From TrEMBL:
Annotated keywords: ATP-binding, Decarboxylase, Ligase, Lyase, Nucleotide-binding, Purine biosynthesis
GO biological process, one term: 'de novo' IMP biosynthetic process
EC number, as in UniProt: 6.3.4.18
All residue ranges annotated as the ATP-grasp domain in the record: 116-295
Molecular function GO terms recorded: 5-(carboxyamino)imidazole ribonucleotide synthase activity; ATP binding; metal ion binding; phosphoribosylaminoimidazole carboxylase activity
Residues annotated to bind ATP: 112, 147, 178-181, 186, 265-266
Protein name in the entry: N5-carboxyaminoimidazole ribonucleotide synthase
Amino acid sequence: MLERSECIKPWGVTLGIVGGGQLGKMLSQSASKLGFEVVALDPSPSCPVSSFCKELIVGSLMDEEKIFELAKKSDVVTYEIEHVNTEALKKLESDGYPVYPQPHILSLINDKLKQRVFLRLKGFPVPDFWELDTSNVHRLRFPFVQKAQYGGYDGRGVVVVRSIEDLDKLLNCPSYAEEFVEIEKEISVVVVRGIRGQIAVYPVVEMVFKEGANVLEMLFSPAELAKEIEMVAKELAISIVDELDGVGVFAIEMFVTREGKIFVNEIAPRVHNSGHHTIESCVTSQFEQHIRAITGLPLGSTEQILPAAMVNLLGEPGYKGKPILLGIEEVLKIPGVHVHFYGKKETNPYRKMGHVTIVGKDINEVRKIASFVSERLKVIGDEKI
């Protein structure tokens, strides 16, 4: 097994991935390029990673026995999704298996309230937050945002409460309240940290979310930001990952207010949707960086070769079932357009089915093409709902 101080050679080495979705697929593609083999664990035998790994273990991501089976066939273990059996990963680590990012970090981040408390205690800027007590509505501070303590992702687990009339929207789950912030932009910084503490950071990206669904629709890199704000965002992201002593790729999502103030929104301890464009636009993709980091290999350059946009291919509302891609011929005729279809067998409204990266010399032209792609390229299903 790999010790934290070691650098391993790719040949004959197996990477274990907990989760077999699109992130696992793209990790597997990068692993293959470096000469690694992959064993993955996922509940679905036809998951996106299934065609790209040496072996797929079919089972629940909460099944401790399956996670240990994966570890025994691997030299280093990672995960592509937060919603896994964290306690099993902790046991693996205590038994000497290398697991990155470290399970205690995952445990902290999975509890959104603990994550908030950690960030505030360490002096990182976060919106004000407090215990949500609805027993006396006259003491509530409107407007506020209710956030689920566990399990929220892709817009799930977040409710904006503007007045007493919105209280019927409240989630019935452990949660907390956060002040409502007037946001000018939402940004993300992808950071990679190696097993010896070496660190690299990608250019800041600007994120645009799907109205009504609160799921990432498209992003632009580099973000249109004042240099001072960009520098502060990068420094914050690096400091957070250093404070965690994390190993691997992390995405730090932030808010920028109209006054130019930055708040940290969320930490993702894994390769992230806001870094997909790096496959085509940067010297080293986030996926290759993650593998380099967790195996002790030197980190690659994060230099951006060309400005880029990324458009998420989301399942269209009103459809489910076997996916049908509309507009693909129009889109593929455009220079600089790179389509990634994840191979998921079923579509549902707003499900992430793929993404498109657009690269070009002129960021304004890239933005125009991204808008065109977003309008023309659609994923529907063979069943209407």
